Fold this sequence. Notes:
Radius of gyration: 18 Å
Number of domains: 1
Low-confidence stretches: none
Number of helices: 8
Number of strands: 0
Oligomer: single chain
Amino acid sequence: MKGLIIKDLLNxxxxxxxxxxxxxxxxxxxxxxxxxxxxxxMMMILAGMLPLTALSYDERAKWDKYALTMPVTRxxxxxxxxxxxxxxxxxxxxxSLLAALAVRSLSLQEGLITLAFLFIISTVFISxxxxxxxxxxxxxxRYLMMIVLMVPVLVIITFANINPVGFGIRITEQSxxxxxxxxxxxxxxxxxxxxxVSVRVYENKxx
Length: 207
């Protein structure tokens, strides 16, 4: 399975220049604006999109048909994509945290809380897109990706317009910490369920 992950990383290297340019631009925006939260969000979402990109390279090259002739199980094929997702999200998390501390726009606790919620979003993002990618193919899954990105934004905008005071809910640092503490384990559980669904889909898939 280690070889499968290395293969995906080498494939993603084709977009390395674009990814590096985006990271530099996001960092510049964060340092100039003195706020790294938006930059961290963009990086975490980008990390969440890359496993689907890796899946698209496999689909174009018809990699699955070739790989399954080798001593590689279907479960390992799926596992490699989920491990890749966690590696990429983890890297984005660390880079964003270091950038936040460098800019000093957030305290360590505020940075961790913000990144915890971004971790939840990106993890759920991958958890939805990978099973769809295995089942429907990458091209159809890209439409789902747009919907997944739009829904949270629409919910937030609608919530703000309907009741700007937030239905009397007072958001404090403690409540955010509690929410992150509950949300992260739930996101990990959702990720595990998504993995099991993808394994089931891929094992029943015909090539």
